[in-house]
Amino acid sequence: MEEKKQLLSILVDNEPGVLSRISGLFSGRGYNIESLSVAETVDPDISRITMVTSGSPPILEQIKKQLNKLINVIKVIDLTGQEYVKREMALIKVKAKPEHRAEILRITDIFRGQVVDVGQEHFMIKVTGDTSKINAILNLLKPFGIREIAKTGCIALPRG
Amino acid sequence: MKLKGAQILLKMLEEEGVDTIFGYPGGAVIDIYDALMDSKNIRHILPRHEQGGIHAADAYARASGKVGVCLVTSGPGATNTVTGIATAYMDSIPVVIFTGQVPTPLIGNDAFQEVDIVGITRPCTKHNYLVKDVKNLAYKIKEAFHIARSGRPGPVLMDLPKDMINSTARFNPPGEVNIKSYKPTYQPNIKQVQKVVRLIEKAKMPVIFSGGGVNLSRAHEELTLLARKTRIPVTSSLMGLGGFPGTDPLWLGMLGMHGTYRANMAISECDLMIAVGVRFDDRVTGKIDEFAPNAKIVQIDIDPTSIQKNVPVSVPVVGDCKLTIETLNKFIDEIDCGKLAEKHEPWLSRIEEWKKKAPLSYVQKDRIKPQFVIEKLYELTEGNAIITTEVGQNQMWAAQYYHFKHPGQFISSGGLGTMGFGLPAAIGAKAACPDRTVVDIAGDGSIQMNIQELATAVQYKLPVKVAVLNNNYLGMVRQWQELFYNRRYSFTHFQHQPDFIKLADAYGAVGLRADKPEEVETVLKQALSIDKPVVMDFVIEPEESVYPMVPAGAPINKMLLV
Questions:
Q1: What is the CATH number of the domain that holds A58?
Q2: How many domains does chain A have?
Q3: List of residues 6+ apart from A24 with CB closer than 8 A
Q4: Are A62 and A16 found together in one domain?
Q5: Alpha-carbon span B57 to B40, nearest angstrom
Q6: CATH of the domain at A126
Q7: Which in A17, B176, B215, B523 has the greatest CB count within 10 A?
Q8: Active site (annotated) includes residue B50
Q9: Residue A72 shares a structural domain with residue A9
Q10: Across the interface, do B122 and A69 touch by the CB < 8 Å criterion?
């Protein structure tokens, strides 16, 4: 069966061990977590986990059911197929020889990124957007030499 | 009124209706044990190994329908219960396990007898807690019991640091438990139930497949009514035995890897399967894409994750088994059941042919056959004993040859298959049902895994009977090695076994032996009449195998019959 991706927004009790319970569920049952991001919401007792999973359609269905079964999981929202806004952030340390600096800055501008650190030999660029935008800027910067990257998982909320 | 954590714990146990706990002391729980000495309403049973304690609490729950309770100390005390917790988890049994823990400032510092038991049991508990603040203790305990017994039941663990147990708080009996993220569905959707009735009206070859859920929900009366009204034959998984009377003419026997010929054939040929409280485990389905190929499947279960997990389902119904079948029966009352009976007659005749073609059978000459022991036991107990089992061949013969009448009568580790479960389980069941005869059917391998519990049975005057089907082999594995590994008996032959009579005697129990078929009845009668724990050593045919057998990976209609 075909593998599909699923974007889930999960509201959970903000208690120690909850993240461990969820990642344990996935590792124990062999489900895939492609990316994960978690933080408190406006209610300090509730956290939101934004997660991208992948698998065949019956597995994706089981994942949602198994998550709902956990006592600490309040709600599982499947954003796949809905109208939503999704963003990721990346910090990219790119090698910047004098003859390349102008080009790198031009690329950064085009992607509406920002230079957040400068050194003799490098720039650190911060860029936000969806996964394809981040991948596109990485591809353009690769020829110059990428020293380090740090990426967040994606976060998302439904529109409306 | 200000109370210490230990006192709050005991008060809450009484609030929850607990009258019996199984526990083993240690440093981290010594304060709880001190408080226990002043308790007038809680009976405490001391096993000889924490694993004995947790299995006993598990079986206590299975036999009584109440929540079982186990109390152990930190570190090795807690880890010794992990097998028992996983056993209860796989079979969905309501147990609450209290583990002592090192004082809160020492947690995470590799202290003496410290383990992260919450981390270790996260995958095998329904839920677990580390209670750091004594002010929360009473409410969390109430919550734990609620979670253990509601929805799909399961084990809940509470880790109690020693300093928390010794601190004080004002005790107010907690109010109603309200967990916003946990609201199981008990009442079925009426439209879905009506769809089931329509399918019953149309089907020509229906079967009811019942499982552990029917027993947990105590839905046996409703199920029996449904089957008899609609003249639909019934089979069940190992965990479902007792959910339908094993002597009823509509009973097909257990299905699956060691199920009866007619049950496996009926499931393979049926056009409608009403699955109640089952999870379509691999022991039952065999090769899953060839399982019940012509059947429309109705699945009734309280747990949405079980529905459509393994097989495609035409009509899913989320709800409690008892309430759902009750609702179904009301709708069935409105249709013409005479027509159903007529419609199903040819199907029932066909099933009768299968029964005649390959009934359960064995041939006994001069060596005792284990099947004969079970049959005699059934006869002499009039089918009224509570039977616990160990795991392997002993378990399968018990399931095949003893015919059960009600939930909680057959107590066996189905999901995890834990050897060593049977003896402590018999103790727990006897503690729950002191007026019933309780017999553990064991193998000579399994019985030694928790043999120390004989001391517990003797100390607390719980006269359980142990029937050891002794063949000097790890029987079920030997059978697989015979059938699929060219009789290469790799480490399945017990070259040295103890003298079980002397062993029983050493513990203060009674030991009996039967070497010949003529001695079986005498030994059983004697054991059942003695008011003490008895170990019966039945020296059986060494290479007897369990049949029918569905080889691993085969569809269930391709059984080995001999």
A1: 3.30.70.260
A2: 2
A3: B122, B123
A4: yes
A5: 20
A6: 3.30.70.1150
A7: B215
A8: yes
A9: yes
A10: no
pTM of whole model > 0.90? yes
- SS3 assignment, position A25: helix
Interface residues on B facing A, Cβ-Cβ cutoff 8 A: 118-119, 122-123, 126-127, 130, 147, 179-182, 303-305, 308-309
State both tokens at A92. 């990219």
CA distance A153 to chain B (A): 25
Q: What is the pLDDT of residue B462?
A: 98
Assess A71–B contact: CB distance below 8 Å, yes or no: yes
| Model pLDDT for residues B122-147, shown as the tens digit of each residue | 999 999 999 999 999 999 999 999 99
Domains, chain B, ranges and CATH? Answer: 2-170 (3.40.50.970), 190-357 (3.40.50.1220), 370-539 (3.40.50.970)
Given B11, B66, B113, B521, which residue is catalytic? B113
Q: What span, in angstroms and rounded, lies between the C-alpha atoms of B21 and B161?
A: 20
Same domain, A54 and A98: no
Residue A17 structural domain: 4-78
Average pLDDT, integer, range A109-118: 97
As a whole number of angstroms, the distance between CA A149 and CA A128 comes to 13
Instruction: Please count the residues of chain B.
Output: 562
A1 in contact with B, Cβ within 8 Å: no
Verify whether the Cβ–Cβ distance A21 to B309 is below 8 Å.
no
The verdict on a CB contact (< 8 Å) between B304 and A58 is no
- Crossing angle of helices A131-141 and A101-110, rounded to 10°: 170
> Do both A71 and A134 map to the same domain?
no
Judge whether B112 counts as a catalytic residue: yes
pLDDT tens digits for B317-358? 999 999 999 999 999 999 999 999 999 999 999 999 999 999
